[in-house]
Specification:
The protein has two helices and twelve strands, in the order αββββββαββββββ. The chain has helices spanning 2-16, 101-105; strands at 24-32, 35-47, 65-70, 79-83, 86-87, 92-93, 110-113, 117-121, 126-130, 134-138, 142-146, 150-156.
């Protein structure tokens, strides 16, 4: 009976532990006129959850946080990133403005927000629509968009 209880507790703890799809090292591949050039390497690491007392009320539905550093910057530019807010009950859906809500609900699109950029994961060789007129084909299924810069292909190592 003791062994059964121990196994039950272990399985319960494993269910509660969420798989971290974000942590890792990513090559940043800029694409210019069909030519892909690796211009940086980003390192994403899971860090301590945000303190609910120190963040806006709208962010309290998801306290998970990651840090991201650029090897090109020598790791001096550590940025805190978080998942796109998605809490339908509180009408918070960061995927909505891109038309990706259904993709996220179906488990086909997950994104992180870094303030002036975001990173998304989908299936490899997916055409991602931005509004009605713009699209991007992600070969690896991981892409980033930097404000005033544009789209880059990311490759997880």
């Amino acid at each position: 009976m003791i062994m059964l209880t121990g196994v039950s507790c272990l399985l319960s703890a494993q269910k509660k532990k969420e798989k971290d799809i974000w942590s890792g090292t990513y090559l940043v591949n800029e694409i210019n006129k069909g030519v892909s050039t690796t211009t940086d390497t980003l390192v994403v690491t899971r860090i301590k959850d945000a303190d609910p007392k120190e963040i806006p009320a709208k962010e309290k539905s998801d306290l998970a946080r990651w840090s991201m550093t650029s090897k090109r910057e020598g790791g001096r530019d550590k940025i805190i990133i978080k998942r796109f807010l998605f809490d339908i009950e509180d009408d918070r859906d960061a995927y909505k403005e891109f038309g990706w809500t259904d993709l996220h609900k179906d488990g086909k699109m997950n994104c992180m927000d870094g303030g002036h950029f975001f990173i998304c994961q989908t299936q490899p060789d997916t055409t991602v629509m931005f509004g009605k007129d713009e699209s991007y084909v992600t070969k690896t299924g991981i892409f980033g968009i930097w404000l005033h810069y544009g789209v880059v292909e990311l490759e997880k190592k």
